[in-house]
## 1
Amino acid sequence: MPKLWLLPYFHTQPLGSTTFPSPTLAFCHSPMPKPWTPPPAPRRTATHQLPLVAEAESADLFGLGVLGVAWRGAAASSAVVEESRAGVARLPVAARLSHQQHVAQVGDVAGGQAQRLDLGQLPIGRLGGDEGAQRREGGVDAVGAVALSRVGRVPLPGLAVQPPGFLAAPPLAGFDAEAVGVQVEGLLVGARALAAVLLVLRQHADLGVQDIRNTVGNIPMEWYQDFPHIGYDLEGKRIYKPIRNKDELDKFLEKMENPDYWRTVQDKMTGADIKLTDEQVDLVHRLQKGQFGDVHFNPYEPAIDFFTHEVMIHPVTNRPADKRSFIPSLIEKEKVSKLVHAIKMGWIKPRKPKEDTPTYYDLWAHEDPNSILGRHKMHVPAPKMKLPGHEESYNPPPEYLLSEEEKLAWEQQEPAERRLNFVPQQYRCLRAVPGYPRFIHERFERCLDLYLCPRQRKMRVNVDPEDLIPKLPKPRDLQPFPTTQALVYRGHSSLVRCLSVSPSGQWLASGSDDGTVRFWEVCTARCMKTLPVGGVVKSIAWNPNPTICLVAVCVEQSVLLVNPCLGDKLLYGATDQVLESYVPPEEERVQPVQWVTATSEEHSRGIRLTVQHSKALKQVTWHGKGDYFATVVADNSNMQVLIHQTSKRWSQNPFRKSKGLVQCVLFHPIRPYFFVATQRYVRVYNLLKQELTKKLMANCKWVSSMAIHPAGDNVICGSYDSKLAWFDLDLSTRPYQLLRHHRKALRSVAFHKHYPLFASGSDDGTVIVCHGMVYNDLLQNPLLVPVKVLKGHTLTMDLGVLDVVFHPTQPWVFSSGADGTVRLYT
Amino acid sequence: MAQLTARFRTENPRYAVEDVPFSVPAASETADLSHLINKLLAARGADHKYVEFDFLIQGQFLRVPLVTHMEMENISTEEVVEIEYVEKYMAPQPEECIFHDDWISSVQATEEWILTGCYDQTARIWSLEGKSIMTIAGHTEVVKDVAWVKQDSLSCLLISASMDQTILLWEWNVEKNKVKALHCCRGHAGSVDSVAVDCTRTKFCSGSWDKMLKIWSAVPTDEEDEMEEAANRPRKKQKTEQLGLTRTPLATLSGHTEAISSVLWSDAEEICSASWDHTIKLWDAETGGLKSTLTGNKVFNSVSYSPLCRRLASGSTDRHIRLWDPRSKDGSLVLLSLTSHTGWVTSVKWSPTHEHQLISGSLDNIVKLWDTRRCRQQTVLLQIPSHSL
C-alpha cells in the first residue's frame, strides 16, 4: 500500500531558529496509490504528539504543512479565517501581509473555497477545492500528501523569493499544538480573537477525548442553535450537544462557586465547557499584551542575510546550468538578423559620432553696447610697468654699469630727465644687495600713475588729410579744354570790352574803347571789317539765331543793330530783307526808346537800326530765338531793363520798380525765364507768368557777370570780389560752390555750348577754365574742376581780361583784354 | 680715344667713296664725319668742292656724337658700322621777296609762274623772278585758295576760290596776258576755303565752310548750267555783274559736321578732306561715298598726301604734324607725330620728289622741312624763320 510518510525531522530542531537547513525533503516515494484510501482514524489520533507535517525548506511547502495541520481543526479554522478577516483590517501592513497569506492558505484548504493566494501562479486554491470532499472524508494525512505531491510536481517560481516579513515569522516551523495556535492567533488582538483561539485550544485540548469526526464544515454554528446536536458522526448519528439547562441563577452560582469559572470557555462546536490550563491562560495573557506566543521566541535576534556580500566558494545552488544558457538563442538570432537587414537596407543609420568639439556661444553677442555693461568694453587697462631689464640686475653685465663720466652726468641731470632713475650697481651676490631705499617712493609713484591714469577714452578720429580733399579727376582726363594761346587778334587801339562769336564760329566781333567794332575771321585772326561807331562799345552780342546775321552793339546811349555782311550771302541778304520788311503800325505807340532806321551812309557801313535810349547802356543780350533782345541801362530808375523786339521794333519795360542796380540780364536758353543780376542777388522771372520765380543769393558783394548753362539749370556768377558762384537752380538758391581762384575781380564768365567747360576772366589778366560737368541724373551734383589758367594778357590800367567767350563748336576760348588784344586759346 | 670701325655708303655716285672700313673716333659728330668724307673725296679728285653731308645709321639721322647715338639705339660698337651719308639740305636763303598789298592766303607755283591768292580779293600771277604778271580781280571777297588747272604755252586754266562762296575758273592767255573768267562755280553756302584739281585736270573739288565738299568739272564749256534756284529766293544782285558762266557742282559730298579746311585728290578717284570736326575723311569721287574716316582730336587745318610714301600728313591746331595711313580702316592710329612747332600748323606739304620729306608752315612764323626717317631728337632738317609780322 503506497504510503507517504512525513518524517519527524524538524522536531529536533530548536523552534524559532531562522537558519534553515539545506533542503532535505525527506519523504519516501512510492507509486501513487490508486484508489486512494484514507488512513485509519485511530492512527491519526495516535499521532497526536507526532509532528504530522514534514518540514520543507520553502515557506510555501511550509504553508502547506500548516494547512495540513490546520486540517484537523478545519471547522474552527474557517471560523478563524472569518474572524481574522475582520480583524486584519486593523493590523499593521506587514503583519497583515503575512497574516493574509496564512489565513488564505488555511481558509482555502480548509473550506475548499477559491481564495486568492500569494504563492505565485500555484493553483493551490483549486487544488484544495477539487479535493475538498476527499479531505472532508479523508484524513489530514491524505490531504497533506496530495498537497505535497502536487507541490512537488509544480515548478514554484516564487521559491527563491521570500518576503522578509515571512522570514520574520518562523515559529510556525515547529509542529506544536501551542505553536500552531500561537502562530495563527498571534496576530489577532481582541476578545473575539481570543475566543477563536480558545476554540482552537479547546479543540486541541479535546483532541484525545473528543470525536473529531464531527465534520459540519465551515458553516455558521447558529444553524444548529435550535437543535440538540451539532453535526453527525460517521455512522450518521447525531452528535448531541452537552445538556445545558443552567439558568441565570445556576450561572451565577457557578460563577460564585466555581473558582475556575474565569478560565472556563464554551466550545461553540460542541457546546462543551473547557477549562483552560495555566499555560493556556499564560498564552492568552501574553497575547493580550501583544507578546509572541512562544515564551522562548526572541524577536530581536540578529538577522543573517541568506545571501551575503562575501564571495563564497560554493554556488548558492548546485543546480546545473540551463540548456538555454549554452544554446544560442533563436529569438536573439532572429532579432539580430532583422537588425542586420535593416542596417543593410539603410533603415537604421549608424549613430552619428558625437561632436566632441565643445560648443560655445557668445554670451555678450546680443548685448547692447550702450547699456551699462557696455562700458566694460571701454576698459582702459592700467598702464603697464616697465619690466626690469639688465640694469636692474644685482650683477648687471659690465656694459650696463655706468662709467665715472656717465655717473657724473647722471647726477647732474634733472631727476625727470634721467633715463634711469637709479644707478646700476654690481654686487657680489644677491645676499649682499641692500634694501632699496626708494621702494616706498616708487610704489607711491606707481599708485599715482594708476590714480591719475586717464580713464576717459579719447575718441580720436584718424583722418588722413588727403581723404578730406574731394577726389577730383585729373585735368588730363577732362580734355579737351583750351590749354595754350593760339592766336592774337590785334588791331584795337584801346581796351577791348566785349566779344561775341557768330553762331557758326567763323567770325568774331569785338567792341573796344577806341570806338570801333571789329569783325575777325576766327581761324586766321584776320580783321575782316572795322566798324567805327563813334563811342565806347560797352557790349556786343551776335544774334544767336544762325539764320540771322545781326550783331547788336551797345554804343553809349544806343543799340546798333549791325549786319556785318559776313558769311553766307543769302543769310545776310535775308536778314536785311527781314529788317526792311518792317511795316510801322498805324497808331504810334509810346515807347521808352526810339527805333531809328539807319541812314544810307550808316547802311553802307552795315548799321541797320539804331535803338536810342535815354541813358547810357551797359549791356545787350539776345534771346535764344534771335528776335528779342534785352538792354540794361546804367541807371538807378525803374527803366534799367528794357526788352526789345526786333521784328516789330517795339520795346517795353518789364519792371515797374527798381530792385537795385542791375548788373546784367540774361534770357534762359530754353524756358521763358529772365535772369536779372543786381549787385547781390540774381532774380529769376518767369516771363509768361510775369512773376518772380527765384531769388539767388550770390554771397558776394558785387555781381559783375553771369552766364547760364546751356541746359538751363545752372548759373554762374562772377563778382568783383573775385568769387565765382555756381548755382544749381534745382538745388538751392545759395551757391552750390563758390570758387575763389582769381586774385582780382572777375569781369566776365562764360559757358561753353557743348563742352562741359566754363571760363572766367579776371582783372589779374588770367582766364581760368574749369570743367563743369552737369549730369542728367538729378541726384548727382555738378562736378567742378578747375583745369587751366590761361595767361597772355598784359595788365593795362590795372585791368586784365575784360571779356571771355567760348567758341560755339570748338573747345576754344576767346578773351579780350585791356591791352587791346583779343586772344584765342585752344 | 675710342675708335669705331665704320663703312661709308651713299646712293649718290658723285660722292661715293671706296667701300672699306674706316676707323673713326667714337665721339665724332656729323661735322667730323663730313670732314672725313670731304677729305676722302678731295683725295680722290682734285676738283671737289666742300659739301656738307648728313649721316644715317640704320635709317636714322645722326644728331649726337656717334657713340652716344649707337648706345641709344643699342647698336654694337664692336662691329663695323655702316653709315649712309647724303648731301645735307641747307637752309635756303630767300632770293626774292614778293610784296603783296595784303595777306596771302594761298600760293601755287609751276615751273614758270607763281599763282597767289590774296586777301585783297585778287589772285595774282607772278613770274619766278617776282615780277607781277597778272592781277586777277573778280571776286567780291577774300580769295582763299588758288590752283592751276592746265598750263599750255598759250593759255592757262586756273581756279580761285573765295570767301564770296564762288569758285572762278579763269583762262589766262599768256601771250596777250589777259584773263577771262570762264565759269563761276556757285553752290557753296559758305566761304570756299580749299580747292584741289585732280590728276586728270578735268575735275576739281572744293571744300567750304558750309561743311560741303563739292566736285566740279574743270573743263570749260560754252553752256551755262541751270541754277536750281528756288523761286522765293531773293533776286540776286550779283547776277548782273557776275563773271563768266554759272557752273553747278557735279557732286556734293556731305558728311562733315564742321567746316572743311583742306581738300586734295589722293588718287584719281579718291578725295581726302580735312575738317574742323576733327576728322579726315576719304571719299570716293566716283560714287560720292565715304570710304573711311580718320579721327583726331583737334581741328585739322591742312592735309597733304604723298604718293611716294602713301602717307597723309595733317597739320592741326595743336602744333603737331601727324602722319596717317589712309588705307587703314576707321580709327587708324597716328603713325608718327612731328612736334616742334609752337603754333598752329596751318599747312603741310609733302615733297613731290622725296618720299621722306615734308614741309610745314605754322603760325609761329616758321617753315620747317621734316624728314620722317625717325630720329629721337630731331627730325627737322631746317627751319626757315621767314615771315615776320
## 2
Amino acid sequence: MASFTASSVSFSAVSCSFKQNKVSSLGKASLSFSGNGSPSRRLPALRFRVSCAAKPETVNKVVDIVRKQLALPADRDVSGESKFATLGADSLDTVEIVMGLEEEFGISVEEESAQSITTVQDAADLIEKLLEKK
Amino acid sequence: MKLHCFERTFFHSSSSLTPIQLPAPMETHLWYVKPSEVRSESLLDQYLDILPPCERENVLQMRGEELRKSALLARALVRTTIARYQINSHSNPRSLKFRKNLHGKPEVQWQFRDDRHPPPLHFNISHTSSLVACGVTTNAQIGIDVEEKHRSIKHNILSFARRYFSKHEVQFLAAISDPQVQRMEFIKLWTLKEAYVKALGKGFSGAPFKTFTIRFKGVMEGGFNTLEDLSLKASEIVVDSFDDPTDLTSNWQFSLLELANSHYAAICTEKHGAGSGKRNSPGKLTVWKTVPFLEDECVSGTAAVKVIHGVQ
C-alpha cells in the first residue's frame, strides 16, 4: 500500500497544560489592604477562573469518548488541540460523540453549538459552560 | 431503467481526463473512487500535485495514512471530475478555485472573463475511508452522502433516533424487529437525511434532523410496514419539512443506492418545473467508478450499482 513520506503533524499537550498553570497561578492571587498594615486584615484570596479553559478532567473525559467513538489506535495522540475532522470523525461520528458527551455529563447540546465544535477543547469548554448553567 | 453506458476506456497518459458533457436537466452523474483500488504511489503524488498548498496541507494534517489517502482522493476526485466538464475552459483540475457559501457548503469559484451568469454545474462530495463519491448536476442543487453498509453504531439505534430523528422516523425504525435490519434501515435513513441537508446547503443547524421527516410514500400510510414493503423499488422517497412550509416535498427528489456491495449512497437533487399535476418522474442517473487519470468505468446497470429507491 502506498504511503506518504511527508511527516505528519503531531499535536502536543503543551498548550493544554499551559492553560492549567495559568488558572492555578491566578487562583493563588490574593489582594490585601495595607490600610493599617495588619496581616490579619487581608482579604481572602480571590480565585480567578479563566472561563474559556475547561478543567483537565473534562478534557480527558472528552478524549476518552472520542477515542472510543473513532476506535483510535492507542498510539494516536489525542489532546485538547485535536480537531475531530483530522482524527477522522465524519458527521455521524460527530453526532455520536455529542450524544456520548450529553450522556456522560447530563447536558443537552443544541445543533448550533454542536456545529461550532471543531476541537476536543471546544467540546470540553462547551460542556463546562452548559454545566455552569445548570 | 434508462441508463447510458459508455465504452470502458483505459488511459495510460498520466494527465488525461475523459471530457464529458454536462448532465441534462433532471439527470445526475455520480463518480466514485475506492481508495483500496488506488495503489500506485506515483498516482497519489500526481493527485497531491494538482492541489493548491492549503488543500495539500489539510490532507497532510489528517491523522493516519488511511485518512490522508481518502482526504487526498476526495480533493482529487472533485477537481478531476469538474475538470472533465470543461466549463468555460476550466479543464485543468489544478486551476479550479473553490470557496464556501455562507453556510459552509463548498462551491466552485468560477473565473470569468466576462460576466454574471454562473455556470450551471453543481456538485457535492461525500467520503468514508473506503469510498469517495462526487455527484454532479446541471442547474439543480445536489447533496450526497455515502456510508459503509456495515458501519457500527455505538449507541442504541432507537435512543439515537429519539434524540435526533423525527417522530415518524422513530416509529418506522421501532417497528423493525430484526436488529441488523434496523441498523441498516437506520443507516439508509441517515444518508437520506444527510443528503437532503447537504442539498439545502444551510449546514447541519440550518435544517436540524428533527425538523423534517423522510419517509417512503405508499409505505408509511396506514400503520406499520412489512419487510416486503421496505424493498419496493417503486415506492417514492419524500420529505416533509415541519419548519419550512415553503420547502415543499415536490422540490426535491431522492435516490438511494447500494454501491459496490459495500456502501449506501443517497442522492438528493432539486426538482424544477415540478408543480402540482405534473407526474413525478425520477431523473436519470449515470454512475462511473474511476481512478482519476487512469481509468473510468461506467457501472450503471451492473452489480456495482443496486437501486434501492428512486431512479427508475
